[in-house]
Amino acid sequence: LSPDEDGICSGRYFSESGLVGLLEQAAELFSTGGLYETVNEVYKIVIPILEAHRDFRKLTLTHSKLQKAFDSIINKGQKRMFGTYFRVGFYGSKFGDLDEQEFVYKEPAITKLPEISHRLEGFYGQCFGEDAVEMIKDSAPVDRRKLDPNKAYIQITFVEPYFDEYEMKDRVTYFEKNFNLCRFMYTTPFTMDGRPRGELSEQYKRNTILTTMHAFPYIKTRINVIQKEEFILTPIEVAIEDMQKKTQELTAATNQEPPDAKMLQMVLQGSVGTTVNQGPLEVAQVFLAEIPADPKLYRHHNKLRLCFKEFIMR
């Protein structure tokens, strides 16, 4: 703030009680929004002010609100609803400035892809005419040359928050994994001959990591993507990732408190008694039957063997 501007410091909020009032309002809104952990952060600023004024009545109120917030964290646990995220790309000169721009949209917790797809199609259909808007159904990279210049194309992909391994040390709780997010990932399966899916030995995967300009939750529900990184996983790396995921699911199901037999049954059927021939047995037969000829693959081969060791132990 620049103090030489007239009247900037004389507004009713520009006082200690004004600040406390605004912070209390913020805490109420965070509480309504289900972000109970942030209620604590806001009151950390308020409490020393109330203590300095010996305002015990307000301190009592504040602490009871804090107790409510902490109770909510304990009682709601994993049932809390945070956002669902989608990457939306716009293609076509009809979009003007938006052409070739990508955004991450934050939607209410249980939004399905068809819902947001339908909404955006309807919205831009009203802007440009229904015939002029087309949704791109896959998440493969868009080839501009194949697009009709008179149409507006929208590509929507479900994305998940992405964290590096070191970040996971600090993001322990469900809230921490859903707050202050600016990196998201989606995966696109592909094979060298152009089909999205193929045999295990020819199944590649492209992991795309997007970085947004600001972190979610934010004032706006969509934020520009400012950086895009792509990693290609070879078939054996895809198999390693799948095995690690199955092992994690098994670990979670066996350590669940209280135990849930149905959940365990489902996980076991999905990881051992797979009806499709893409189960662990198939993976072992394809990749571990013989030692690879290429020395570059030794590391992956060993890693996959270790994954199986862990899996069998679970």
Automatic annotation (TrEMBL):
Keywords: Guanine-nucleotide releasing factor. The keyword Metal-binding does not apply. One of its GO terms (molecular function) is guanyl-nucleotide exchange factor activity. It comes from the Eukaryota. GO terms for cellular component: cell leading edge. GO terms for biological process: positive regulation of establishment of T cell polarity; positive regulation of T cell migration; small GTPase-mediated signal transduction. Signal peptide: none annotated. InterPro entries: DOCK, DOCK_C_lobe_A, DOCK_C_lobe_C, DOCKER_dom, DOCKER_Lobe_A, DOCKER_Lobe_B, DOCKER_Lobe_C. The keyword DNA-binding does not apply. Residues 1-314 form the DOCKER domain. Gene3D superfamilies: 1.20.58.740, 1.25.40.410. Coiled coil: none annotated. Belongs to the DOCK family. This is DOCK8 protein. It comes from Thalassarche chlororhynchos. The lineage of its organism: Eukaryota, Metazoa, Chordata, Craniata, Vertebrata.
